[in-house]
Amino acid sequence: MHNALAALRPVYVIGVGNHRYQRRSATSYVELGLTAVRAALADAGVEWSAVNAAYCATTQLDMAPARPMLRHLGCTGIPMQQVENASASGSTAFRNAVIDVASGMSDIALAIGVDKPRSLTLGITHNGLDSLEGDRVSPFTHFALLAEKYAAESGATAADFARVAVKNLGNGARNPWAHRQRAHSLAEIMSGEPVAGFLTPLQCCPVGEGAAAVLVASEEALRRHGIEPPRAPRVLNSTARSERLYPDETGWDAALTQETILQAYAEADVTPGQIDIVEMHDAFTVEELLYVEQMGLCAPGTAAAELRAGAFDIGGRVAVSPSGGLLAMGHPLGPTGIGQICEITRQLRGEAVGRQHHGARTGLAHMLGAGAVCVVHILRNET
């Protein structure tokens, strides 16, 4: 067991806030970020002066964006740190804030994610090494190939992949912070011009702008600020791993997910059957079918049948991506993992108006970054 939070002091989520994810606009990143942070402070009922540390997740902004943003709240001298970890940047910033409080370095810490889209290049393209695939295998090509492989092995059809989008876009239509806020029929999703293989445009996540913020705190801080336990889910674990060499190198995303999830369950002392809410890295529809199996939420090869049966709906056995997931909520990169924590917190409080999964007590957040890193958090309402 690695870096288990159980050996440190308890950490709780006390405040969450969002700026809607959306297409690129003239709104500055400062306004996007401050909207989310101010909402999180108001949600927690604490002043900015009570925050002891800040971690800012971005992938597409220039150097040191936190200071010119957060100084509008007051220059309090707290340590600030920029966090970049590809799509898992927000999840990693949240992990850093959690560890800060768990270790006793802070009583209240902020994780803020904010981004505005622009053209990006991955570090691997500048590593000085030639690659046989070059730039010919884009993310949607990779996942389209995985979809074809999964279909061949499980019997899943093109319609099964599209049903993931039907569910998640339907959930996003009930989420005021989602990038895509319109439900679509199976026929609409399948009729789109293929991007690659089975994947049509509505089966691929939108990348826009937005912000999300979360405040985490110690037990002492909860008492000091009069925060009621039902509104402060506990963070049971903070699990992060990076890729290894796998026997089947085409499916490293799923293999890394399974390894990280199994470690997270052990650290949180939780079983798959106890999970009520899952927010996952579903940038492409095939990912949901792959990852629910790796998470132990259904038997291998059965995800499509379970989806058709409603097992992953809000109100089903386990609500998968009730926010709409990356497919509907959107994927502005820096904020994405923090936005997942916002949704899970609202669900565990019973405050996810219009999309509440009743009886939700335990939620899991999962993000991959460039296929090479994976971060998983499990939260529980202990009241």
From TrEMBL:
Pfam families, per database record: Thiolase_C_1 (PF22691), Thiolase_N (PF00108)
Domain of life of the source: Bacteria
Domain Thiolase N-terminal as annotated: residue spans: 25-179
Matching InterPro entries: Thiolase, Thiolase-like, Thiolase_C_2, Thiolase_N
One Gene Ontology MF term: acetyl-CoA C-acyltransferase activity
Ranges for domain Thiolase C-terminal: 262-371
PANTHER family found in the cross-reference section: ACETYL-COA C-ACETYLTRANSFERASE, NON-SPECIFIC LIPID-TRANSFER PROTEIN-LIKE 2
Protein name: Thiolase
